[in-house]
Write a structure and sequence with these properties.
Blueprint (H helix, E strand, L loop, with lengths): L2 E6 L7 H15 L3 E6 L13 H5 L8 H10 L2 E7 L7 H9 L12 E8 L8 H11 L6 E9 L12 H10 L3
Parallel strand pairs: 1-2, 1-3, 3-4, 4-5
Helix pairs in contact: 1-6
Length: 179
């Protein structure tokens, strides 16, 4: 059994990336894993100030929701990010959280496998390319971890457009394969 954290970065109710994340969660649970989904909707996440105090303290000095999220990521075996693609890139709230997770860098993190689930109105297979590159930049700072898998569902724009899409089953299977 692995400890899996799924971070849903969309702030929109009924978002396609959040629904995709739910299916990944279902799959990971069906494989017997301990899974927690964290939605960034309603969370206070301020911008990184670049003070680097986190490198000495092992936590951020900004008092918002990030330190609680960071503690869960630190103890996870698997981290899955779910984001809508905005202008061919990850959501701003995902990038802001990634920047704020800088305190993890010198710590003894557990996560080895990182997944990325993306959705977009654009359907071209190259659409998530920059988001994957951005997340890979974060992963590269944690040499014991790797990008274990990605899943893109294009052609979904309005809330819940993804319902009935075969990518939901793929997300379930991706989560189920975690063992």
């Amino acid at each position: 059994m692995k400890r899996v954290i799924v971070i849903s970065t969309s702030l929109r109710h009924g978002s396609n990336s959040d629904i995709l994340a739910d299916k990944f969660v279902e799959g990971a649970l069906s494989a017997g894993n301990n899974v927690e989904k964290i939605s960034l909707a309603g969370k206070e996440i301020q911008f990184c100030r670049g003070c680097f105090a986190c490198q000495k303290l092992g936590r951020c000095v900004i008092k918002d929701d990030v330190n609680d999220i960071m503690a869960k990521v630190l103890e996870a075996d698997v981290v899955c990010w779910a984001t809508p693609i905005y202008y061919y890139e990850m959501s701003g709230q995902m990038k802001t959280l990634i920047d704020r997770l800088n305190a993890l860098y010198p710590l003894d993190y557990r996560f080895r496998d990182v997944y990325l689930l993306t959705t977009a109105a654009e359907d071209d297979e190259q659409t998530p390319k920059r988001a994957v590159a951005g997340l890979t930049g974060w992963i590269d700072c944690f040499p014991k971890s790797r990008l274990a898998g990605t899943l893109f569902c294009g052609g979904v724009n309005d809330p819940r457009d993804i319902e009935g899409n075969n990518k939901l089953q793929e997300a379930f299977e991706l989560g189920k394969a975690i063992c």
